[in-house]
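User: Please predict the structure of the protein below. I'd like the answer in structure-token form so I can feed it into my own downstream comparison script.

Assistant: Understood. Taking the following sequence of 100 residues as input:
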Amino acid sequence: VSTQSTGAQLNENELVLSEFGRLKDNAEVFKLVGPLLVKQEVPEAVSTVKKRINFIKGELERCDKNIAGSEERQGRCREARAKIQQQYQAKMQAASAPKS
């Protein structure tokens, strides 16, 4: 799952949570279970959405940490490659220098 689609899911769930705040006291909430709409208590639905938001935020944090770790490893590899290239160039220059 991409970070972009996970971010979209977070936005969608935050929108749903804000819509719950606009419900009237006698409002009914339904959830989709397979092909059926099943009545759900509002507090239960709010709790479910809040838990989903927390889970999605955790996934986004995990992805951010993975990206940061990958970027760090990439930087170390880039530095190692530059060092090897410098050593190679130094050896090539030493090998092609006129011997006296």
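That's the full token string. The beta strands are 29-33, 36-40.
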